[in-house]
Amino acid sequence: MANTEIRYEIKEYVGTVSRKKNGWNRELNIVSWNGQPPKYDLREWSDDHSHMGKGITLFADEMKTLVDAYTKYRNRRVVDDAKADEAKRNEQYWNDRNSRNYNNNAGTEPTGTADSPAATSTEDQQIDMGEGETLVEGSGSMVHKQGTLPDDGLTDEELAATVALGLDGTESVCAESSHVPF
C-alpha cells in the first residue's frame, strides 16, 4: 500500500463546535482536499491545524439539507415545547381559579366553568340579593348576577350581556358594570 500524502487547505474557518480536554477542537471549516473544490468539513483539529482526526465532508447542497433538517426538527421541538408550556399554564390557571372560586363560595360549587365568564376572581365579592339571587362584583369591569334572568322591562342595552348556564343549573348574566340595572 502506497503512502500518499494528503494535502489540504483550509479556505475558510466557519466555527468551533467544541473544545476537547486534550487541546483539540471540533471545527466546521471549508476545506479543499488534494486540490479538489472546497467542501464543508467537520472534524477535530490540533490547535495549529497540523494534525487532524476523522471527520465528515459535505458538499454545499448536503450542508444546506443538513441545516434545513436540523432547523425543521428544532422548530418542531420549540413549537411542541411552547404548546406543552401553554397547556400547563392554562391548566394551572384554571385549577387556581376554580380553587379560589370554591374557597370564595365557602364550600359551594363554583358558579362558572373554565369556559364561562361567570367564574370569579380573587377579589370578587358576593352580595346576597335575596330571592335566591347573588350579585358577584369583580375587580374588573364585569358584574355577574346569578339566579333567574330578570323580567322587569330592562332594555337590550341595559342587558348587553352574555348568558351562561352555571354548574348548579341557574342562569348567570354578565354585563358591563356601567349597564347594570340593579
Q: What is the rounded Rg?
A: 34 Å
Helical content, roughly?
A: 10-25%
What fraction of the residues are assigned to beta strands by DSSP?
Answer: 25-35%
Q: Which structural class do you get from the secondary structure elements?
A: alpha+beta
Total tally of structural domains: 2
Report what the structure shows.
- With 182 residues, the protein is of the alpha+beta class.
- The protein has two domains: 8-58, Transcriptional Co-activator pc4, Chain A (Roll), CATH 2.30.31.70; 60-182, no CATH class.
- Helix content is 25%, strand content 35%.
- Strands 5-6-7-9-8 form a five-stranded antiparallel β-sheet, with no helix packed on it. A four-stranded antiparallel β-sheet has the order 1-2-3-4.
- β8 and β9 form a beta hairpin.
- 13% of the residues are buried.
